[in-house]
């Protein structure tokens, strides 16, 4: 059965690619909001935002990439819940295939969707004057970190989809993950804009860590001030550790949720 | 005789409600077995258990010689499942859906494509093969769904209400396809709410009611327990109903329930035998008893009658309502 994992995952990866080719507007669903954010925040509110030692335009892009990755939660979750609802998961369950491929095919295809979204966003960023001020290697590391975040969010999305089971319900539950991640962190504004007690929380948010890591890797201002929390002093390492730890927890939970969801129906 | 599906003491609970209360079945290879029952009887639950989608709380089941709990992968290799609701990817074309299933059954690339084309042809879907399934009509989806379950040429197939929502022509076409499969040696377990469908297709039928087997046997045997034609008469006034009931009791099928008076006190129904001779005898009895019949209807036994006779609970409810 082990030997089927790769082949079956590829078959399902192919399924998602065909669907994406047929409905490429899905990429816009993921990227339209962040593009609006860049324009709104960057141009309209930008002048009222102050970033310690840097300007807001170069600050915001890391946050926008994070937001696109967070959109994976809904995107993947709705897809998984839809498969459950319309009985496709039942069909898969009745086939002699490697069941984990259902999740692998989905998550890896969503990573590819994320790559496409990133390229799109990168172009928008360059057009509006954002620049990566470091070297190629660091820039690449940054994008790999973005994709690792996306991969983690995709698995969280899978889990939510399997637990909620209703495509319409996924959005509301996903918001409970994405909203605090976006607004209780330094994705869109430096933490010194927040009240002290919120700052203390937001400093430890994995999203603040990832945002800081990206800004550092891309040579953009981090806006963290002089004496940040421990993870923010080693942001790249901390991000990698935090996300890996999340994955180690979420992947087995999601696999279990798949097993249970399929047996409920 | 080879047993393709065997079930013993199958039980399943959802929370506190026991949905299957000990089901025993044996299906001979190369035959069609019909599970008949009203909504909520537990038909889908049985099918899903046999298809390894559900774990039973107690009991054993084997499919094609493999234990559903201990050898699920082998069972999956031997079955095709058409669930109660079509399980397709609406965004993919019919062909892509079939190729995906064939690939996941590990047929290999080339054979998967060839088999998909074959199945499309078989189900008369070649003209729509390269259209997304979301553009298919309900009947086309049903056919494609059935096709998907036959893609791997499995020796055992499960069909959960395969003809619900089909027009009469598609229904008969689907019956034909099932018969063809059976002629090739495939074993079919089919659930349905239509007595006629079970009658047309099944070699044996199990009537399921509230998670229990209410009756089991060849369709002819079951119909014998239900009796022949049903006669339903409407009398002019409620006072005549009792006389009519007594008159009809003299002609009702032996071994069947006596005539029943409806809630409104005007309608009396009874199971007859001997075809036209039975109808004529009933008419004579009614005339001799001077019952004024304002309306009469002779019809074939329906699933309702099967339940009336076999489980008695619908009739029981009626009778208590009459008192
Ligand atoms: N996941 C579930 N959770 C709780 N109860 C369930 C679940 N699935 C089925 N049931 C209950 O189990 C009983 C049997 O359901 P089942 O679907 O097997 O009936 P059925 O004979 O297929 O009915 P139908 O003709 O309506 O398809 C029903 O009362 C149903 O409400
Ligand atoms: Mg059912």
What does this structure look like?
- Chain A is mostly helical and 265 residues long.
- In chain A, 77% of the residues lie in helices and 0% in strands.
- Chain A has one domain.
- Chain A is built from eleven helices and no strands.
- Chain A is elongated and about 60 Å long.
- With 323 residues, chain B is α/β, with parallel strands linked by helices.
- Chain B folds into two domains: 3-223, P-loop containing nucleotide triphosphate hydrolases (Rossmann fold), CATH 3.40.50; 228-300, Alpha-Beta Plaits (2-Layer Sandwich), CATH 3.30.70.
- Helices cover 39% and strands 26% of the residues of chain B.
- In chain B, the strands form three sheets. Chain B has a six-stranded mixed β-sheet with strand order 6-7-8-3-9-10, sandwiched between helices. A four-stranded antiparallel β-sheet of chain B has the order 2-1-4-5, with helices on one face. In chain B, strands 12-13-11-14 form a four-stranded antiparallel β-sheet.
- In chain B, strand 9 and strand 10 (212-217) form a beta hairpin.
- The longest helix of chain B is centred in the middle third of the chain and has 16 residues, at 168-183.
- Chain B is elongated and about 75 Å long.
- Mean pLDDT of chain B is 86; it is low at 313-323.
- Chains A and B meet through helix 1 and helix 4 of A and helix 2, strand 6 and helix 3 of B.
- The structure holds adenosine-5'-triphosphate and magnesium ion.
Gist of the model:
Chain A has 265 residues and is mainly α.
Write the layout of secondary structure elements.
The complex is a heterodimer of chains A (265) and B (323).
Chain A: H1 4-22, H2 25-45, H3 56-85, H4 88-93, H5 100-127, H6 136-164, H7 167-183, H8 196-202, H9 206-217, H10 230-233, H11 235-264
Helix pairs in contact in A: 1-5, 2-3, 2-5, 3-5, 3-6, 3-7, 3-9, 5-6, 6-7, 6-9, 6-11, 9-11
Chain B: E1 3-14, E2 17-28, E3 32-36, H1 43-50, E4 58-63, E5 66-67, H2 72-78, E6 79-82, H3 94-104, H4 109-122, H5 138-150, E7 156-160, H6 168-183, E8 187-192, H7 195-201, E9 204-209, E10 212-217, H8 219-226, E11 230-235, H9 239-249, E12 260-261, E13 267-271, H10 275-288, E14 293-299, H11 303-310, H12 313-322
Parallel strand pairs in B: 3-8, 3-9, 6-7, 7-8
Antiparallel strand pairs in B: 1-2, 1-4, 4-5, 9-10, 11-13, 11-14, 12-13
The structure holds adenosine-5'-triphosphate (ATP) and magnesium ion.
Adenosine-5'-triphosphate (ATP) binds next to helix 1 of chain B.
């Amino acid at each position: 059965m082990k030997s089927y994992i790769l082949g079956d995952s590829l078959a399902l990866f192919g399924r998602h690619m065909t669907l994406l080719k047929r409905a490429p507007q899905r990429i816009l669903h993921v990227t339209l909001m962040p593009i609006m954010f860049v324009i709104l925040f960057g141009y309209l509110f930008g002048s009222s935002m102050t970033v310690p030692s840097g300007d807001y335009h170069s600050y915001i892009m890391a946050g926008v990439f994070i937001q696109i990755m967070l959109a994976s939660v809904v995107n993947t979750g709705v897809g998984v819940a839809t498969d459950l609802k319309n009985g496709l998961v039942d069909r898969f369950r009745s086939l002699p295939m490697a069941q984990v491929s259902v999740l692998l095919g989905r998550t890896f295809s969503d990573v590819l969707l994320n790559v496409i979204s990133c390229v799109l966003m990168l172009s928008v960023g360059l057009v509006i004057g954002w620049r990566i001020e470091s070297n190629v290697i660091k820039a690449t590391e940054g994008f790999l970190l973005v994709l690792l975040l996306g991969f983690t969010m995709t698995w969280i999305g899978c889990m939510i989809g399997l637990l909620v089971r209703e495509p319409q319900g996924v959005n509301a539950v996903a918001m409970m993950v994405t909203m605090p991640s976006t607004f209780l962190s330094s994705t869109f504004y430096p933490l010194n804009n927040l009240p002290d007690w919120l700052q203390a929380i937001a400093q430890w948010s994995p999203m603040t860590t990832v945002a800081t890591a990206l800004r550092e890797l891309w040579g953009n201002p981090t806006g963290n001030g002089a004496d940040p929390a421990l993870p923010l002093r080693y942001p790249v390492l901390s991000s990698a550790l935090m996300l890996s730890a999340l994955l180690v927890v979420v992947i087995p939970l999601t696999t279990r949720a798949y097993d249970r969801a399929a047996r409920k129906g | 005789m080879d047993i393709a599906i065997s079930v013993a003491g199958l039980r399943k609970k959802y929370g506190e409600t026991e949905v299957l209360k000990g089901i025993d079945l044996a299906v001979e290879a190369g035959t069609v077995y019909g599970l008949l029952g009203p909504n909520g009887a537990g038909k889908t639950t049985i099918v899903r258990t046999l298809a390894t989608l559900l774990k039973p709380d107690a009991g054993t089941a084997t499919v094609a010689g493999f234990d559903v709990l201990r050898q699920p992968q082998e069972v999956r290799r031997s079955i095709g499942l058409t669930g109660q609701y079509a399980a397709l990817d609406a965004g993919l074309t019919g062909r892509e859906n079939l190729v995906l299933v064939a690939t996941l059954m590990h047929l290999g690339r080339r054979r998967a494509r060839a088999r998909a084309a074959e199945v499309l042809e078989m189900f008369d879907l070649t003209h729509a093969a390269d259209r997304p399934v979301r553009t298919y009509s309900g009947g086309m989806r049903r056919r494609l769904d059935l096709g998907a379950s036959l893609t791997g040429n499995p020796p055992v197939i499960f069909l959960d209400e395969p003809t619900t929502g089909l027009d009469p022509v598609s229904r008969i076409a689907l019956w034909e396809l099932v018969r063809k499969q059976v002629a090739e040696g495939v074993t079919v377990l089919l659930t349905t709410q239509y007595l006629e469908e079970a009658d047309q297709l099944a070699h044996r039928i199990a009537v399921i009611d509230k998670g229990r087997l209410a009756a089991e046997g060849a369709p002819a045997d079951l119909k014998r327990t239900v009796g022949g034609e049903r006669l339903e008469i409407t009398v002019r006034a409620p006072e005549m109903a009792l006389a009519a009931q007594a008159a009809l009791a003299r002609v009702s099928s032996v071994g069947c329930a006596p005539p029943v008076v409806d809630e409104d006190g005007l309608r009396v129904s009874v199971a007859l035998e001997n075809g036209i001779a039975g109808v004529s005898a009933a008419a004579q009895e009614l005339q001799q008893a001077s019952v004024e019949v304002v309306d009469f209807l002779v019809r074939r036994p329906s699933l309702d009658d099967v339940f009336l006779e076999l489980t008695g609970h619908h009739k029981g409810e009626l009778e208590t309502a009459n008192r």
